[in-house]
């Protein structure tokens, strides 16, 4: 798997032309491998979102061998650079693009519309086209469960979340975390600090320390690509959990757990369909039942009776008999969010732009 960063990509482009970095402008011959490119906004380390996406492509290489060529472009900022780089990798013959950030949506969609022979998977978006599928994880299925555990361990009744951007995928994660916590302790409150970045370790640590100073004794690291929040919580003796990949080694004493994502089933099925000529764009909202989302590395400190209840709810989520977004749910402003007995449809969850009662921090405007 080839890994390129924005810096060495752009430096080489200046010296030799971007075509010299990513390949010839000539169309690939029929017997040449399928070019698969993953573009992500942060450096790919040993944990986090980018790491999980890159790991999701490994089984494709194992399955297809020399029939595929995978390139990972890391640390590509959302905006004009990303648009140019995604356009160039497709112009050079790569026919399968994984656009790994919400802010890549417009540029990636334009690529799909111009070239029907290209398949595009786009992270966290909402637009759909015949050869363009947005994909997102039902993190909320796991954060509800970890909310239950957090409430059981909290002594202050105050929980916190360091969150990247106020997009529906992360809003739903916070809301389910709050609902799970309030199912155990109805008066618990959740404070949120939005850092407005996918990768800013210093700012993330600062946010975690601010929440700890407010007596939040369990912190949800919501879409950080580094263990910055987890490490700060370990140092302070505060429980913490995160999304995408395990960070337990960075907090051996206070790690509450991880909502792990395995994108390989979805990526493999999408590549299979592309090669078979049967790919059809659809909104892929994937969770426990799809073997994409799983809660791992549970803390042994969670009380046994609470863990038993958590496992019961987890089984109901897996078989579809329970959704964290089942009413009655009251919004943070006091209005009705979900009626008693009703459950939000996936389309409603994907578009969620409000907080539930118990989240004390208003959404940014």
Verbal overview:
The protein has about 375 residues and is of the alpha/beta class. It is about 40% helix and about 20% strand. It contains twelve helices and 15 strands. The protein has helices at about 5-15, 20, 50-65, 80-90, 105-115, 140-155, 170-185, 200-215, 230-235, 265-275, 305-320, 345-350, and strands spanning about 1-5, 35-40, 70-75, 95-100, 120-125, 130-135, 160-165, 190-195, 220, 240-245, 255-260, 285, 295, 330, 335-340. A seven-stranded parallel sheet has the order 1-3-2-4-5-6-12, with helices on both faces. Strands 8-7-9-10-11-13 form a six-stranded mixed sheet, with helices on both faces. It is globular.
What order do the helices and strands come in, and which of them pair?
Blueprint (H helix, E strand, L loop, with lengths): L1 E4 H11 L1 H5 L11 E6 L9 H16 L3 E7 L5 H12 L4 E4 L5 H10 L4 E5 L8 E6 L1 H15 L4 E6 L4 H17 L4 E6 L6 H13 L4 E5 L5 H9 L2 E6 L10 E7 L2 H13 L7 E3 L6 E4 L7 H16 L9 E2 L5 E3 L7 H5 L15
Structure in a nutshell:
By secondary structure, the protein is α/β, with parallel strands linked by helices.
